[in-house]
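= Tokenised fold =
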Amino acid sequence: MVSEGTRTVTAGGNPTSVIFKAACPDCRGRFELAATALRLAIGGSDRTTFYSFTCPDCGSAVRKPAGERIVELLTGGGVSTLRLHSKV
């Protein structure tokens, strides 16, 4: 889960990075991740649009579906985005 409660970390009044609140479904850990720790894949449907990260507590690879609101939050926060193309 990526929370809507994101915050921008600043250094000397200048924004440096966005921090996202996340949770691991395996170890149930809750933590904050920088935008660089998340990846977003946007596919042709809801089933192929997801975000992923590695849990800093247990090391599990976590993959979660991303709806429109999550996509907006992640792209607006500078998360690396991959656009998937379907075969025709």
